[in-house]
Amino acid sequence: MIQRLLFAFLILSALLHAKEYDETVMDIEAKLFPKIAILEEKIAQNPSPYLSITILYKEADYAVAERFKQKIESTYPKKIRDKNVRVNLAQFGLSHITDTDALLVLAHEAEELETIALWANKNKILTFAYEPASLEYGLVSSIYIGRTTKPYLNAKAIKKYDFVFDSYLLQLSKFKE
Predict the structure, then answer these.
(1) Residue 99: which pLDDT band, with cuts at 50, 70 and 90?
(2) Beta 83-91 vs 79-80: how paired, if at all?
(3) In a domain? residue 3
(4) Tens digits of per-residue pLDDT, 111-165?
(5) How far apart are CA 83 and CA 51, in angstroms?
(6) Residues 158, 165: contact at Cβ < 8 Å?
(7) Of all helices (H) and strands (E), which one includes residue 8?
(8) In terms of residue numbers, what domain contains 86?
(9) Global confidence as pTM
(10) Residue 8: inside a domain, yes or no?
(11) CA atoms of 14 and 34, how far apart (whole Å)
(12) Which residue, among 105, 41, 44, 27, has the nearest Cα to 80 in the 3D structure?
């Protein structure tokens, strides 16, 4: 009986730490994040035949990360511009992440978001936040979905870490300071 209660407590605690994700938002972001990534100069000029995106998740959000991966891969089964899209999954712990162009960051604690943003920005890895509010921690881009859908860019991070985007994207975007 105690084992069952402990197991139920563990399951409940994992569910309480999980964030709820909107499928429509995920669909839109899965379509737009790779397009935004390819408009960043370093990624566009990289001779690699791949656009590599790593989805950074917490254990409670593993199923969401898998769905996000499937959505991106099904949206881009062939090339985007001249690059094949490759999607990887990783849990927080940045030392094992290598050879990626962009990070799609799911829900994390504020301190983790700051660590992720600092590490990625110093390594010139473009970051995408599921939630626009996460840009305040230093992540570079997100999507605002409301009456209109607009890319959000973190002006401070772009300037400080020298990310260079296509002028078309800059004209369409809303900037967060």
Answers:
(1) confident
(2) antiparallel
(3) no
(4) 999 999 999 999 999 999 999 999 999 999 999 988 889 999 999 999 999 999 9
(5) 6
(6) yes
(7) helix 2-17
(8) 22-176
(9) 0.86
(10) no
(11) 30
(12) 44
